[in-house]
Design brief:
The chain is α+β, with helices and mostly antiparallel strands. The protein has a domain at 371-396: Double Stranded RNA Binding Domain (2-Layer Sandwich), CATH 3.30.160. Helices cover 41% and strands 13% of the residues. The chain has 14 helices and 26 strands. The strands form 13 sheets. The protein has a two-stranded antiparallel ribbon with strand order 1-2. A two-stranded antiparallel ribbon has the order 3-4. The longest helix has 12 residues, at 48-59. The radius of gyration is 29 Å and the shape is elongated.
Amino acid sequence: MFNLCFFYQGTLNVELHVQNDECRYSCDIHSGEGPYAYEVFSRAFSQKGHLTTHQRIHSGESPFVCDICNKAFRQRSSLIRHQRMHSGERPDVCDVCNKAYSTKGSLIRHKRTHSGERPYVCDVCNKAYSDSSSLISHKRLHSGERPYVCDVCNKAYSNKRVLIKHKHIHSGESPFVCDICNKAFSQRNHVIRHQSMHSGERPYVCDVCNKAYSNKSSLIRHKHIHSGERLYVCDVCNKAYSDSSSLIRHKLIHSGEHPAVCDVCNKAYCDSSTLVCHNKRIHSGERPYVCDVCNKAYRNNSTLIQHKRIHSGERPFVCDICNKAFSQRNSLIRHQCICSGERPDVCDVCNKAYSNKSNLIRHKRIHNGERPYVCDVCNKAYSDSSSLISHKRIHSGERPYVCDVCNKE
């Protein structure tokens, strides 16, 4: 014998009727037909109203209609919850932080952020979640299921939110607008991150190094640096990443897809965020991210963060082989290839291997004759930037290297 607990008195009353064998109203519509067959049975209900509500599943009837947007629902309670979206009513308030919600279920999920409760556990890897929808999305990583398909390009996703974000690429829609500067974004989390630039608020703090972030997802990604966890694995080459967005961008390397196209110069990119950086800053020259120490300005926030480590001396990226620390992730990745001897980037012409992609790109210019670095004085071209810098000293007369014995330049 065990005790069952319920959130609502009504649910308890229904269960008591079941225990007392008072289920008098039966649904006889169920059958074994269809792709998922089961034995014929009659589901029983204790109240006629419950049977009526249940039978709407079969009939498709949705008699409760919102008088604002005409969305229809099978149950009156669902309509009432929906209408709170329009009215802004939030009757369920957290007794810890006073945050208010439109439904009791949302409040229950929120309160788990205070209690740390994670009742939904993956039966494959034992990772735990505070809500069932997050567990369902997570389990698709193991199963490979991608039920949400774009009706424009047939690209498939494991959760609906990512599909909605993807479809903004095709529509060009930017429905989320900053109420301070009117800048528009295609995703809600992007406008939330952007608004923290105006407020300067960083409420999410790493409990290992005390680094603070403006949003929870950035903190979660950061903490993977300390744990070394890389849950997101490419099913083509098995390369692993600490966050899903990095894996999505990586997989475009295999597909060759570049869906985000600049309407000024037609340059194509793998993702819309990179296109925004290119569009708004390469063509406009905008540099909105300014260092508060030396006032040097940058096109994107990540470059500013890297720059500020020059002033702070912070080196958060540590080699797990020799413990050498670096201020940038790509510097650590290049270094680890040296420690491990790994050379994953191979020239498809002569099979020469390199520890990082930038070295391979420079090498391939030997084969294709490309010289993208051009002197603005005499138009002499070079295959790498360092050669151009050395050449330009001929014109400027600069002699930066001085002998420490005789002071000869």
